[in-house]
Amino acid sequence: MTVHGTCDPRFSQVREEFEANLAHRGEVGASVCVIVDGEVAVDLWGGQAAPGRPWASDTIGHVWSCTKGATALCAHVLASRGDLDLDAPVVRYWPEYGVRGKGGTLVRHLLSHQAGLPALREPLPPGAFYDWKLMAGRLAEQEPYWEPGTRHGYHALTFGYLVGEVVRRVSGRSLGTFFREEVAEPLGLDFWLGLPEEQEGRVAPTVPADPPQAPASFYLRAFGDPASVQAAVLAHEGGYMAAGESDSRAAHAAEIGAVGGITNARGLAGMYRPLSLGGGDLVTREHLALMSLTASAGADAVLLAPTHFALGFVKQVDNRHLPEPDSEGVLLAETAFGHVGMGGSIGFCDPAARLAFGYTMSRQGAGLGVNPRGQALVDAAYRALGHRQAYGGIWYA
Length: 397
Prior knowledge:
This protein is 30% helix and 16% strand. By secondary structure, it is of the alpha+beta class. A hairpin with a 6-residue loop joins strand 8 (296-299) and strand 9 (306-309).
C-alpha cells in the first residue's frame, strides 16, 4: 500500500517501519507524525480508511484513550492559570461529589486513577455515555470501590466525566468546548471532543482486533467473575462497547472525555508540540515540570498489570516480563509523558528531547499497551534522535 506525506531523511527509519507495518504487520490504515524542535520531521499516512477509500491526508479516526491526554491537558491549563488547585478536595468545585466516603478525594486523585470510581456499580440505560449530566450525577452519588488515594486502578471509561466535570465547573464551559476554544483552535488542530456532523465523512471506522490466543488478565477477570470491578467496566457502559456503537454518529457527537476523541497523528503530535517546547501558551514551564512527575505506579487494581501514571498521563512502563498480551507496556524515555489508546494508538511529548509524537490507526491490537506496530515507530524516532535503548527496553539519551 502506498505511503504518502513527508519525511526528513534523518527519520527515514520511521518511514521504513511505517511501510513495514502496512506490508507485514497487518496495518490497515494509519498515520504517524513526529515533531522535533517545533518542526514537523515526519507526517505520513497510508493504507485504507475504509474498503475502497484510501487513507487521506485529512482522514481522522477514533483514538480511544489518547483522549485522556486531551482531557488532562484541559485541567492543567486551568491549574497553570491558578483557577484550579490540583491538591484541593474535589468538593471545592463539585460539592455534590462529597458523599459516600468521597469527601476527601483530591483533584489529583481523579487525574492519577486513584479516585476509586473505575466503573459504575449498576447498569446504565442505553446511550448513557451521551448524557453528560446523567454520568456526572451517577458518579457523584456512587460509593468508591476503594478509599480514594490508597491505590490506583485504571478509570478506563469514567476518567473523562470525573476530570471533565471539574473542568466544566471551574471554567463554565463543557469539556469539548473548553478543549476546542483553549487548545484545538489556538493550535490549529484537527482534534475533536464532540465531532461536528459535517466532519463525519472523514472518519476511518475502527477495525476490531482479532481475538487473542491468550486474553489479558483484565479480560480473564472480567469474563470469569461477573461480580468483579473488571466486569463492571465492560458491562455498565450503556452499550457503548457494543460492536460498532463507538463508531455511531451519536458516539462521535458526544463529549466522552475518556475515550471519545477523534483526530489523526498530526492532531495528537500537534497537541503535545507546545509541551515539548516548554509549555507554550498552554502551561508555564514550572507547571510543565509537575505534569511529567509520577503520581501513581505499580500494580493496577483494575488492569491487573503494572501501570505508571503522571497526573492524567501515561509514563513509561516495561511489562515485557509478563505473558502476552499483558506484556504490552509503554517504552518511552523517562522524561516522556502522554497517553495510549485502546488498540495501540499513542500521543506523547518528551520535553528533554523536544519531541512530540502521534500515531493513529484503524485496526486495533489485542493488548492494553503499545503494540509492535506503534512501538516500532516510537523506537525509530528515538534512534533518529541519537538515543540508545538501555536495560529494560526504556529509551535514554
